[in-house]
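Late entry, written up from scratch paper. The run itself happened at the end of the previous shift, but nothing got recorded in the book at the time, so transcribing now.
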Amino acid sequence: MGNVNQKQKPQQLEHQNSSSSSTFTCEICIEPVTHPNKKFNNNNKCTHPFCTDCMIKYIQVKVEDNVSDIKCPALTCDHSLDPLSCQPKVSHQLFNKWCDLLCDSTVLEFDRAYCPNRDCSALVDNECGGRGVSLKKCVCPNCKKPFCFRCKVPWHAGYRCDETGEIMDRNDVAFGVLLERKKWMRCPECRHCVELVKGCFIVRCRCGVKFCYGCGKTVCNCRASILDYIFRFCIVIVVFSLLCLLFTST
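Output as recorded:
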């Protein structure tokens, strides 16, 4: 008997091609997967061959290790897993814990302080630029009361953070508020208040110390001090020019 060449029907060829294209080998468990819905999809960010079961276990391990930004397990991939695309695949409890880690990691990027008001105690974030950004006076968004973000006490108007322990009664607090409203400056040596009515920004305290009224430092290069020196220099130039014109005219 001779060999009989039987031609396959087009429908059979199409079925074989589709089944072969949907079959893949998971790079985690190294097992062939034939069901197309078992392939994990990272919101089309990357298309590595991982089965859904292995990725669920991978996410669970990362969440248990308190990792919020879960990267794709492929060695050459730097994409992060999309939590929303993973939500239908993982359990509700696991997804909520993952979301909590994401929220905590976002909040930890900022300095935090609790409102010192006993009736409030709300958590306040320094959103002015993250860690390293200096913030002192802050208003609680919950109770609307000011407090010092640096030393975590109610706002000490007119006093430095290292002087807050010396405030004993309401008179000290009232004087501090007045000092801040009048924009008086304290002497850096004796800490007495000085008021500048007019004139040069370089003032002399009654204790004999000279300091800048703009920043409160004895030696500084602040804008107020520089502008004051420029103003005084211009006055000297104008007076000198007038004297020169006076002598030349005579």
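The first helix runs from residue 10 to 22.
(Scratch paper discarded after transcription.)
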